[in-house]
Amino acid sequence: MQETTALYKQIIGSGYYETETMIKIQDTSGVMVEFKEGSILDVSISRCAFNGSNLAIGSAPIASCSITLVSDDFSAKEISRNIPKSARIEIYERVTDGYSVSEWLLQGVFFVDRRDSTSWTGRLRLDGLDAMVLADAGFPGSGQGWPTGGKLDTDVVDIIANQIGVDVSASTNLDKRYRIPFPGTFTMREVLSYIAVMYCGNWIINKAGELELLKIGDLPSESFDLITMSGDSITIQDEYIQKKIIIRGGIYIG
After folding, report:
1. If I label 13, which of 31, 108, 146, 152 is the partner at 20 to 30 A Cα–Cα?
2. Contact at 8 Å (CB) between 129 and 111?
3. Rounded CA gap, 60 and 68, in Å?
4. Angle between helices 188-198 and 153-164 in degrees, nearest 10
């Protein structure tokens, strides 16, 4: 969960605001170069907490993004020339009411998967995938020295996170301490799915680019609060007003 400032909440709460987008893309020297509104023609993010159209557990879906950069001075090939293969992409968003501007909030971390630089009109299309795609590789190691009773699930997840270059979200709670046998020929993503089933949840790469386990039905108490547009709980005489949330067929209904 991302923390927001009082100014962000104030702007959102006003009901009259616009969003602004900034994109940072790694160049050939490793520097993250900023692209702001004038250079961004289009940007979209596709992210879900489960695979397919049905709510289910045991998923580790890959999120994607699509970006079109535009330039009056350079062709698409010239823009593309400074963006290496698998370059890191960070997408940010902020809100403004025309007078005040909030902080930038990270909306996702991706890596260039495909590009279209065939146009000479100064438009470059980039498609990116998040770090979960790297988990489709085989689990590392030969299993030599793996404990007979299996390794703790927390250690296995740390191994996978290290292999795909991400941190494990602080909100991920693997409190059952299950023992995992050596995965053999399974991919890291399949191992994550296996662990997710044990915890009745799904793995994602969150907006901050961290590996996070979302447990189905594990709602914090504040999820039941009626809230304002800025996300603040509504109270009467210091008592929280709550809504009843029930589950039918695995889907939350408020």
Report:
1. 108
2. yes
3. 27
4. 140
pLDDT averaged per 10 residues, the chain (length 254):
86 90 96 94 90 78 96 88 95 94 96 89 94 97 92 97 97 95 96 96 95 80 53 58 43 36
Q: What's the token pair of residue 245?
A: 């949330």
| pTM for the full predicted model | 0.83
Looking at domain 135-215, its CATH architecture is: 3-Layer(bab) Sandwich (3.55)
Q: Confirm whether 6-129 and 135-215 share one CATH topology.
A: no
Residue 62: name the closest of 156, 169, 189 by CA. 189
Task: Take residue 137 and report the two structure tokens written for it.
Answer: 């590789």
Cα–Cα nearest to 43, from 23, 27, 25, 63: 23
Domain ranges of the chain: 6-129, 135-215, 219-254
Chain centre to alpha carbon of residue 182:
28
List the CATH code of the domain at 6-129.
2.40.10
